[in-house]
Give the backbone structure.
Amino acid sequence: MPNLPERKVGIIACSGEELAVGTVSRLAALKVLHELRPGKTVTICLPLFLAGGEGDRAFARFHPTITVDGCELRCAARGTEMYSGKPTASVVITELAAENGVGHIDGRRTLNQAGQKAVELTAERLTSLVDEILATKTPGKPLVSITAPPEQPKAVGCACGSGIPVQTVSIEGQPVELLALPLIFSNLRERGRAPDVVADELMASVEIYNAVPVGAKAAYRTAILREYVAYCRGGMR
Amino acid sequence: MSHHPCVVVIPCSGIGKAFGTVSREAAYELCENFRPADTNLVALSKLVLGEEEAQARVRSNAAVTIDGCALMCASKLVKLSGGTVAREISVLDVFRRHKRLKPEGIAELNEAGKKLARVIAAEISETLDEVLAESQGGHHA
């Protein structure tokens, strides 16, 4: 059954291949993801915002996200904001290194000692930001995520946290993209929740992941329930 | 003034699997060891941002992309940026021909992964003169 909801923080590294600080960004992100806060963090390859689908572009609207950039170009922070959503926090390694008196970072393929020190410092900073974000529930930005959606249509590709399921629903004649809706439907149906008793629960789940305009709640409710009925009928064929 | 023609090399930046790290390592092998005088590494993150200097380099040179998964982000983004993909390398395709070289480790590749990266770099290196000739022909036609 889909695991819903689970609180995680997204970390997006620039991974810049041209500079050693890009390597620092990548290794620091991986350290947090795999060693320091496994299970609490998730990532996505930055290029997927352009090369991937709608689900990939929804990443930073869905997860509270920290970007980690090697240099002042801030490709990860700016790219994330342009194509996905505003990051909750961002770290720039050249700035962090300067603040902490780290020497010249070199060796994009094999980092020198200063580069390794920068990885440690950046990972520490990221970890502290992850903990802060998880401890603070920001209104309007849900600190939740969904893991391993089994019915997600897009199956090819990377093992990063790409492909948040989205569904476009017609609400009063307007197409509205709703995050996580396929997974919410799947979750409710697998729990045996019939359409005639599920409306309140359905709306509560939808509102965790999506901002529903106050004046449009009734229209959202009608449209989403209609889609859920269709979804359940489809599954019974 | 004439300038030495070169090929831009763009790995995929994949961070979710070891195959993404192989793409990065293969690009370094190619640009630092096999063909340093003929290649120029471009960070894919700059293309995501739409950075002008990176876009100009991609538009004015033939590109070799190295992708770690079936989504082929590097290849797609070079095309989106107006570049010409002269050779599109899929790490998975090369791995299928070298099944003993199973890469493991994202932050630190195992020895098999490093060998796979060298195989990829060597294969690209062998075709690079052809790519350079094609691109010069195209530019001067």
